[in-house]
């Protein structure tokens, strides 16, 4: 399985701290994720009643014909974190108005893991500057290629 990244998260947010968590999944969801059938765009994490959850992560059915009829690909999934990590996330997210954002999904020793980031939203001005820097870098690389 390749490492599936949430590129939009790195563009929209400034990542302050990173965490690694397991995800509670059905068997067919694990197979689907290992085949790259997950999208993290627009998803986020919340903490409710001392437990962490992942919302709006799309997991495509592995075999659509064999998937249960009531299966919801955008269902809320429980994140598996240590109690100390959850307490730290609760404190920091409330105190500084930070968001829990999924950064990537990967396998580790056969288990599906998700990289979470405690993130602060970027302002439009910062995003525009990032786009300008990227365009300038691309232009200079083109000019260098042309000169050879």
Helical residues, percent:
25-40%
SS-based class: alpha+beta
> Please, how many domains?
1
End-to-end Cα distance, whole Å, is: 38 Å
Shape: globular
| Count of helical stretches | 4
Low-confidence stretches: none
Mean pLDDT: 88
What's the quaternary structure here?
A: single chain
The CATH class designation is Mainly Beta
Q: Strand-residue fraction?
A: 35-45%
Q: Please state the second-level CATH architecture.
A: Beta Barrel
Mind telling me the CATH superfamily name? Small protein B
CATH topology: Small Protein B, Chain: A
Biggest sheet details:
7 strands, antiparallel
Overview of the structural elements:
- There is one protein chain.
- The longest helix has 24 residues, at 124-147.
- The N and C termini lie far apart (38 Å).
- The mean pLDDT is 88.
- This protein has a single domain (4-122), classed as Beta Barrel (Small Protein B, Chain: A), CATH 2.40.280.10.
- With 148 residues, it is α+β, with helices and mostly antiparallel strands.
- 35% of the residues lie in helices and 35% in strands.
- The protein is built from 4 helices and 9 strands.
- The strands form 2 sheets. It has a 7-stranded antiparallel beta sheet with strand order 1-8-9-2-7-5-4. A two-stranded antiparallel sheet has the order 3-6.
- It has helices at residues 7-12, 27-34, 83-96, 124-147; strands at 4-5, 13-23, 38-39, 44-48, 51-55, 58-59, 77-80, 99-108, 111-121.
Salient structural properties:
single chain; 148 residues; alpha+beta; Small Protein B, Chain: A; seven-stranded antiparallel beta sheet; two-stranded antiparallel sheet; 4 helices; globular
């Amino acid at each position: 399985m390749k490492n599936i990244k949430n590129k939009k998260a790195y563009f929209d947010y400034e990542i302050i701290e990173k965490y690694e968590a397991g995800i509670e999944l059905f068997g067919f969801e694990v197979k689907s994720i290992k085949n790259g059938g997950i999208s993290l765009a627009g998803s986020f994490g919340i903490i409710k009643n001392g437990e962490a959850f992942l919302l709006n992560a799309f997991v495509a059915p592995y075999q659509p014909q064999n998937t249960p009829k009531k299966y919801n690909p955008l269902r809320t999934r429980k994140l598996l974190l240590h109690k100390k990590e959850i307490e730290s996330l609760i404190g920091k997210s409330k105190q500084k108005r930070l968001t829990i954002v999924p950064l990537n999904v990967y396998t580790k020793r056969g288990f599906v893991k998700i990289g979470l980031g405690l993130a602060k939203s970027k302002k439009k001005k910062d995003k525009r500057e990032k786009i300008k820097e990227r365009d300038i870098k691309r232009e200079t690389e083109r000019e260098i290629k042309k000169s050879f």
